[in-house]
């Protein structure tokens, strides 16, 4: 059966066992039951179309995949599935400075796009922590945010149009090149965050910004406890200040980062990192400094951009520091910004009651927290599943988050990891409507089955 | 049959012939074949639910309606239809300054919302020209933009969540109170711009901004011809400047406004109005002045905010001026910003070739043009349809717009007026998928039939 596809695709179809084994995991710590049937390493749109036509004809489940850096298991390949990767489709098809847009293939890495844009004085704003390794297609699949989306918007606000391959192999163009438009339903927005369940994104028309951010001021403040830091963060946004980045690190996170970087971060209970930019950077920074001080923060202002970068390097080292600790379950809840102190209090309670260490960082400016449940010290023996007691603690976390008016996932997606809580947030009616929409795009259910729903 | 609904709704159900006759029209100049069956003037969500339950049980078509200010015929009631109006559901349910959000009923008028927000120092940014008369629900139905969306975003960027009544009367809550989230498909975005075809929006959770815009600088420039003005507008956005408003008026529009306001606007061939705000207002205004001059514009800077308001009052008088001219077909195409000069050249050609006067204003900062096809002088005799020769000219316009990479409608919607061009823009596959989505929400097809599709 596969030979038919091989005849059409040649070396684009990969069945090497080592390559297939790698597709069983992503960065979520999950690992599937067994290797997928095969991998299509598409170089062009026609390869994706051929793969989907074949899968549709033979009723083979398809897992769309980019760089495999997802944190919710959405791109994990299982036995009997065909993984269709766009990771080798990395071309920049167009850059228009006049219209502030770019057209790119889905496999282009986020940071590579920005490297290509820089000579044109342009910038693609969504900056997930994975920006050096994750693809634009993957960013679209999960509606990725990042450190600067608090001011510059998430992926949904940065995508004008898409080209997608449907379940039966047809190519469909959605959206537009204009900044406004309301001709029919917004299918582009529907695809963003759909985690490969509606079609395979092969190309995107992206809305760009100018690279010049003007003056950039970076502030850092140590706090005596995480409650004070969370209150300060909520007070900054409540004051109407819109920093370019506003990051919070708790004591556990700081300790792990200090160990990883070999830095003495002291016995800091919590730290806030704030960046302001543009014409109002200095005025906003002064207002932020006053708020930090009023909440008991010991604040310092970076002398220059290099020192600012070094301060943020501490934050960017969080994920590597966690990997060094061993296996972690990386969570991604979001709450209304005013509920940030309550959410941190709940995390403290869950740590104590469940006896689990939960280092947490937060994109505090938009109420998005990443609590990392430390499962085990890494012993080099390979993968570790998520034990029941960790899921019990995560369940406690999700319920607190929903109670505070929050959401299960701010920017990582549902994937495999959060399916069981989907109805708790959305309700039965909304889930049934969503399944109805999926059936419109994928009537035979071959697209990423078992993910999200 | 209707008596059953009357028993349930009492005076909320209106069958007065004068009231029903008014529902045959909106602000599009279209008028339906006959008055609808009845009007439900809902005061609360339960009224909308009762109306939909009844309509669903009796297979009666439902037309959701707000203030009836639509420009595409989307809320026009026809014979045999039940109009469900949310115009009397005008409560502000919650204002949270800390979380920069408000929860409001759908019938609240846009300007009334901003009046309620002002004492809290908050602002809802989407500002359609109809802001004094159009409702938040209507703004959501058409994804309304306005003068300032070039910098502050359209309706889709300002809505966090919705409550909607489904075709069978069930109430469904969509979206969230958090600024980020990716749990399941974005049904909120799907409803925005859906023109009453998926459900009845009864409540919205809106994302707010701070009212304080900082310094506001207003510039005005007269140009020797519209091509120069369009080129200047494209040059301003291409320079990376993001004005708070950037409006273009052509000679015909200026002449009509001058007559309406009793102002001597001279024999201006075109005018650009530019507003910059915030900490960079002065720097950006200086850069804009240089670009205006380089393109042959005779520019002036308003001495103060009052003079700035007077300059913009000229632009805001456009629609009243058009109403004074008689019946007009108000169009709403959008093109990539760099194509603005080409689009204005096409409008000039269409005016000459079709012998029709087409006064045009443009939200030039986002490439959205409103060409107004003047049909006839108003003789007081009532409604006038759109003659075939005007549709032929409009058809020419739409084809030019699509050829330039544009879209049929930037912010008014498809409604009745643009159905016939829908497939030209979207293609057959996308239209079929959209109809499939509609069927998921509205399996028996009672929601606003004949609109959009």
Automatic annotation (TrEMBL), chains A, B:
Pfam families: FAD-oxidase_C (PF02913), FAD_binding_4 (PF01565). Keywords: FAD, Flavoprotein, Oxidoreductase. Residues 32-211 form the FAD-binding PCMH-type domain. Its cofactor is FAD. The keyword Cell membrane does not apply. PANTHER family: GLYCOLATE OXIDASE SUBUNIT GLCD (PTHR42934:SF2). This is FAD-binding protein. It comes from Protaetiibacter mangrovi.
């Amino acid at each position: 059966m596969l030979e038919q596809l091989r005849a059409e695709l040649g070396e684009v179809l990969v069945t090497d066992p080592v390559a297939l084994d790698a597709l069983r995991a992503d960065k979520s710590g999950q690992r599937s039951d067994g290797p997928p049937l095969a991998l299509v390493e598409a170089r062009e749109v026609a390869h994706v179309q051929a793969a989907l036509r074949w899968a549709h004809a033979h009723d083979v489940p398809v897992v769309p995949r980019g760089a495999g850096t997802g944190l919710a298991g959405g791109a994990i390949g299982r036995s009997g599935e065909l993984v269709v990767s766009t990771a080798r489709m990395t071309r920049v098809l167009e850059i228009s400075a006049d219209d502030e847009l770019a057209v790119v293939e889905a496999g282009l890495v986020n940071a590579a796009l920005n490297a290509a844009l820089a000579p044109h004085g342009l910038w693609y704003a969504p900056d997930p922590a994975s920006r050096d390794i994750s693809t634009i297609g993957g960013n679209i699949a999960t509606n990725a945010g990042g450190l600067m989306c608090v001011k510059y918007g998430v992926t949904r606000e940065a995508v004008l149009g898409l080209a997608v391959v449907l379940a039966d192999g047809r190519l469909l163009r959605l959206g537009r090149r204009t900044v406004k438009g309301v001709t029919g339903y917004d299918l582009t927005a529907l695809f963003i965050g759909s985690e490969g369940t509606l079609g395979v994104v092969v190309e995107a028309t992206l809305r760009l910004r100018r690279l010049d951010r003007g003056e950039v001021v970076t502030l850092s403040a140590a706090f005596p406890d995480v409650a004070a830091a969370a209150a300060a963060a909520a007070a900054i946004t409540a004051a109407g200040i819109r920093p370019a980045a506003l990051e919070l690190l708790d004591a556990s996170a700081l300790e792990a980062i200090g160990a990883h970087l070999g830095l003495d971060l002291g016995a800091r209970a919590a730290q806030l990192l704030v960046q302001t930019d543009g014409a109002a950077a200095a005025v906003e920074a002064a207002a932020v400094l006053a708020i930090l001080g009023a909440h008991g923060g010991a604040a310092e202002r970076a002398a220059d951009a290099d020192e600012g970068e070094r301060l943020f390097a501490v934050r960017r080292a969080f994920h590597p520091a966690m990997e060094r600790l061993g296996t972690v379950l990386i969570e991604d809840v979001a709450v209304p910004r005013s509920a940030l102190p309550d959410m941190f209090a709940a995390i403290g309670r869950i740590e104590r009651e469940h006896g689990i260490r939960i280092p947490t960082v937060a994109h505090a400016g938009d109420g998005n927290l990443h609590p990392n449940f430390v499962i085990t010290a890494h012993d080099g023996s390979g993968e570790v599943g998520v034990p029941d007691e960790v899921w019990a603690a995560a369940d406690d976390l999700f319920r607190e988050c929903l109670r505070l008016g929050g959401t299960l996932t701010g920017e990582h997606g549902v994937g495999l990891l959060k399916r069981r809580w989907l109805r708790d947030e959305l309700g039965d009616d909304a889930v049934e409507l969503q399944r109805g929409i999926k059936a419109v795009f994928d009537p035979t259910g071959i697209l990423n089955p078992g993910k999200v729903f």
